[in-house]
Amino acid sequence: MCRNIKTLFNFEPPATELEIRDASLQFVRKLSGFNVPSQANQAAFDRAVEEIAASARTLITCLVTSAHPRNREAESAKARERSQARFGPRSS
Predict the structure, then answer these.
(1) For 2-11, how does the pLDDT look when each residue is reduced to its tens digit (9 = 90+)?
(2) 54-87 per-residue burial string, b: 16 or more CB within 10 A, e: under 16
């Protein structure tokens, strides 16, 4: 899985349209192998991003869970701790 695609389900506040679109863009980039498509492929690339975003939106709204929503700040802090344990302290 692409490391830049983040889990969007079961967060408080819910995922924003921008987060869904960004994840969709990363997914299409990974599938196509293009970071920036050529002019000849731009329309297909943009259409794929929009279709994936629509599917992701549908999926996120249809999923159900009995778990309490996760807190974005707490999850981000956990990720930083894992990164620091794996790679060491970040130098500025």
Answers:
(1) 566 788 999 9
(2) eebbeebeeeeeeeeeeeeeeeeeeeeeeeeeee
Q: Identity (one letter) of the amino acid at 66? A: S
Query: What interhelical angle do 39-62 and 17-32 show, nearest 10?
Result: 130
Q: How many CB atoms lie within 10 A of CB 25?
A: 19
pTM, entire model: 0.79
Region of residue 10 (phi > 0: left; psi between -120 and 50: alpha; otherwise: beta): left
> 56, 23 in Cβ contact below 8 A?
yes
CA separation for the pair 15, 88 (Å, rounded): 30
* Calpha distance 25→5 (Å, rounded): 9
